[in-house]
Every structure is written in C-alpha cells, then in structure tokens.
C-alpha cells in the first residue's frame, strides 16, 4: 500500500501535511475527500480521444474566452460551455445563460460522450440518475488559477457536480463551508474525475496556479469539464 500525501492548510500559506492511504492510484482507485466528495482516479482516461474531439467541437462553435469578474478582473482561466445553459461572468455578476454572449447563439449541445461519462461517474460515486444540463469547459495555461469559491449559481443543490481533469496536472484546493476553513491540497491528473454532492456540495474550492509542464494529451494546457444540473 502506497501512502498518498495531501496537504492541509490555507491558500498561499504554509501547509501542514496529512497522509491518506489507498491501495490504488490513477488506475481506478477512489479517494474520498470528505463525506459526499470523492476522486475517481483515471476514470476518464480511456475516453480521452473522444473527449478531446468533443471539446474541439464545442470550442469551434463557442470559442474559449477570458471572462471578466464582477470586480472587473480578467479571469486567467479561459472558458466556454455546452449544454442547455452555460455559466458566465461579467461586470454585472455570475449566472447561467442559454445563449453565448459572444455569438448570440445557443451554446452547443452537450456531446453524448461527456454526458454519459458524467452519468457513469456520478453512479460510481453513489449518485443515481445524474442529469447534467450544463457543462463548463475550463482551459488553463501555465500560471492560470482559480481562487477559492463556492459553486452556488445553480438552482438545485441536491444534484452533485462532476468535474473531469485532462492534460497537465493541477493542485486542487478543497476547503470547508466557510472561506476561512482549512483546505486539502489534492493533486488532480489526467483522467481524474471528482464527484461531489450532498453534504459537500457547497464546500469552497479552487485551483492553484498551473505549473509549466508538458502532457501528451494537451501540451502545456489543462482542461477541466465541470458538469452540473444548473437549471430545473
Ligand atoms: C477546475 N473546478 O478543476 C475547477 N467546482 O478546473 C471547479 O471549480 C469545481 O472541480 C465544483 C466541483 C468540482 C470542481
Ligand atoms: Fe467550482
């Protein structure tokens, strides 16, 4: 059995270390982060080709762009969406919209491979009948980061969130229900799928600045697909 090291601490502060033990890694193993949140290691890896094609198709119809936060900052992560509604941010706030503000058109349909993968991951994690209608696609360049936040723009918090990591590995920060709660530092690598819901649904989380690295799937980039039941 190989120990997996996670770090407990606050964003940008010195971190203390905590070890979790798991028999399997990046090969079908499951790490429980807390009740309601788990990482399915490598769950998406065997569908990487179809997923890459799906993301390319989405990005052709709805290009990646750097959204502006309500505070006026340009997000370092580039985003696009597929599905019935897409998550956007601008000077007036965060919300889901049926149309892409860049093109004025509906967001592209959610590719079946993405929907199916998310359903299977949710099922594996114990959430039956996950029916996502929004998929946010995040693209990280080196140094891109996502500060601590809660996902709370959805209408239904009873549905879980399924989050797929592809390409360059990242350090995912996983906190508590208050911003100041300590965070767990979780390495997410190509093919890992995080499923969280129930008591974990509103936990704070973020992604540390992406390190310069190369991955055969995506060069220097990391992609993340975050699927949600955003509207009911
Ligand atoms: C990312 N993910 O991994 C950003 N949110 O690039 C998220 O913000 C996220 O991974 C809710 C649930 C899972 C996530
Ligand atoms: Fe999030």
List the helices and strands and how they pair.
Elements: E1 2-9, E2 15-22, E3 30-34, E4 37-40, H1 48-61, E5 78-83, E6 86-90, E7 93-97, H2 112-124, E8 134-140, E9 146-149, E10 161-167, E11 170-174, E12 183-188, E13 193-196, E14 205-207, E15 222-228
Antiparallel strand pairs: 1-2, 1-12, 3-4, 4-13, 5-8, 6-7, 8-15, 9-14, 10-13, 10-15, 11-12, 11-14
The protein binds N-[(3-hydroxypyridin-2-yl)carbonyl]glycine and fe (iii) ion.
Which structural traits does this protein have?
single chain, 232 residues, mainly beta, seven-stranded antiparallel β-sheet, six-stranded antiparallel β-sheet, 15 strands, 12% helix, disordered N terminus, binds fe (iii) ion
